[in-house]
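User: quick one, fold this
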Amino acid sequence: MLSRRATLAGNGCHGTNRRAPRMAADLSLAMAVLVAALAPTSGAEQQTLAVPAEVETVVTGGQWKSDKQSGTYRVIVSTGGFEHIVSQVQVDWITETVDRDDPPRVVSSKTAETGTWRLFQPRIVKSGGKWRVLLEGIETHFTRPPRGTWTIDLGEPAILATRLRCTQACEP
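Assistant:
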């Protein structure tokens, strides 16, 4: 004769939970919903910022003001070439965010005149009450390549001035 416990277990009354299959189904459904919610499924979730391969450095900082707007500067150094590597420096003037309905935007962009130099280590600094960009550089088109520091003085949107202070092998 079977014990009372064994009899009840055989009948599904003890040692098993009649709700277990239902709970397992609910848990499986909940996990499926969670995985679906966290997994990117549309193009919007999978969008990435397309930065060209030539972009080497991006630096943001400083402050500008005009009659009606104010904001910050962004400096983008792009570099390319094969035997002689050459850089371009683009300065963007970006507006401040005033409220959520007025997001920041680029109000002006300008390429600095830096010749055919390879430029690196951009930094935005304030000197003499004015914002400027400093970049180290090398001119790779010469046997003894000149080296120097480029200074880009920044102002209101689209206003900049560029100059070079040569530091090594500066005479042709």
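User: anything notable?
Assistant: The first helix runs from residue 4 to 10.
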